[in-house]
Amino acid sequence: MYKIGVVGDKDSVLGFLALGIDVFAAESSDEIRRTLIRLSEDDYAIIYITEKAYMLAQDIVERYKNNMLPAIIVIPGVGEKYGVGMNEIKESAKKAIGVDLLFNE
Question: How many domains does the chain have?
Fold first, then answer.
């Protein structure tokens, strides 16, 4: 059975425990990278990652970008407003439909 996990700083991810999502507090680049690789090899279908964690391990996330599983989804963390999550959604929508209809400014 597939699992769902979230990776990021402790303050941003602890609330996900209430939803039954596996929580992985990781703050250093190496910690985040090791965690993402381990989760991708351990039946995690969805991995949420905070924007700050994404920026520290972007190369690992990119490695799995074209795979069906795991789906790695960037979310904002506590106090984070980098815009990375929204940009990822924009690029995914653009790739899926071929044009930027959703965010056309």
Answer: 1
